[in-house]
Amino acid sequence: MKQPNFLFIITDQHRADHLGCYGNPIVRTPHIDTIAARGLRFNRFHVATPVCMPNRASIMTGRMPSVHRSRSNGIPLSLDATTFSQLLLEHGYDTALIGKCHLQNMEDRPPLVDPEDVGTLKPTPGFAEATHSDLEHAAYRQELRSTWTDPEHRLTLPYYGFSHVELCNHHGDETYGDWSRWAAAQMHDFEAHRGPGRGIPDARFSAPQARRTPLPEHLYSSAYIAEPRSTTCAAMSPRAVAAPSFSNVPFPTRTIRSRRRGNTGTCIRPTLCRYPRPAPNPGPMRQHMSAGFTKSAGKASRSSPRSACLR
Predict the structure, then answer these.
(1) Residue 311: inside a domain, yes or no?
(2) Rounded CA gap, 105 and 144, in Å?
(3) Which CATH number characterizes residue 149's domain?
(4) What is the pLDDT of residues 63-121, one digit of tens each?
């Protein structure tokens, strides 16, 4: 029997009620709404933690943060951890990640939680965790923004079970990695058109964590991820017939366009507003509690990242 292909889409910092299929009357998500109408829409899918990096590690390992030990942003997932993408790779799948990874730290700042905070009894150095991972090793600096300033830097593959990776880390027009290198090659003054202080003023809105970016839409990181111009897509397509594929497509917090008002903005935190209205034709609803995910239903909508409307 032919093995199935998988496409796993994650949107960053995206509340469930910021989707049309979950009742939002302003934010337009027609493609996701179509997937929801044709597939299943869950109303009790709970994450392991509302914090980005630990939850991504939980998605990849199927373990709670107390077990995989990435308990805070800034604490990388051990390279010794077994991920489901690694298992797929071992079973003949072509595995690819195109987008935001964030299984390792992105910024040169210490984590909010001490990686070795295991109580009053300090363990022998090197024995704090279930594995002997040296989190200060260069192998755990592969996603840092400062590391990506080296034009020769590439991730060491396979990376957490992914044999192909195109990195688009961080948020909005501050995203870096393979995308920023590609965009800089398309626009000679690319760096002058992005980042804090370079947004287009708009007196109609007051949003401290959002701004309108002057970047053209075809250079958005989300456009880069979605388009088949990706070198990873090109590399995998000749083998698609011979081997099944698993593609993880985690979009960073993206630059969005509001058609209602015609404005374009980088939505840094789409968790500031709530529009809990019922959605028309939302697709089949299924009550579902994901095994091992224990956050209360009242807090589920605050979680990130989230994979919504799975078929």
Answers:
(1) no
(2) 6
(3) 3.40.720.10
(4) 999 899 899 999 999 999 999 999 999 999 999 999 999 999 999 888 878 766 555 56
- CB 10 within 8 Å of CB 305: yes
Domain-located, residue 307: no
Q: What is the DSSP letter of 306?
A: B
Residue 34 corresponds to which tokens in the numbers above?
């179509």
Using CA atoms, how far apart are residues 40 and 17, in angstroms rounded to an integer? 16
Give domain status of residue 126, yes or no.
no
Q: Which residue segment(s) compose the domain that 298 sits in?
A: 6-108+135-302
Q: Would strands 255-258 and 263-267 be described as parallel, antiparallel, or unpaired? A: antiparallel
Report how far apart, in Å, the C-alpha atoms of 65 and of each of 18, 32, 50, 62, 185 are.
Answer: 26, 29, 11, 10, 39
pLDDT digits (tens, 9 = 90+) for 147-178: 999 999 999 999 999 999 999 999 889 999 99
With a CB cutoff of 8 Å and minimum separation 6, the contacts of 301 are 15, 16, 17, 274
Take residue 60 and report the two structure tokens written for it: 């990849």
Q: How many CA atoms lie within 13 A of 48 on its CB side?
A: 23
Alpha-carbon dihedral 89, 38, 62, 113, rounded to 10 degrees? 110
Collapsing DSSP to helix, strand or coil, 166 comes out as strand
Phi, psi of 179 (to 5 degrees): -65, -50
pTM of the model: 0.72
In a domain, 122, yes or no: no
Are the beta carbons of 39 and 283 closer than 8 angstroms?
Answer: yes
The answer to whether residues 16 and 301 touch, using CB atoms and an 8 Å cutoff, is yes
CA distance 62 to 82: 9
Which structure tokens are listed for 187?
């626009």
Per residue in 205-252, pLDDT tens?
A: 777 777 889 999 999 998 999 876 555 555 555 555 578 998 999 888
HSE on the CB side for 232, CA within 13 Å?
24
Please count the structural domains in the chain. Answer: 1
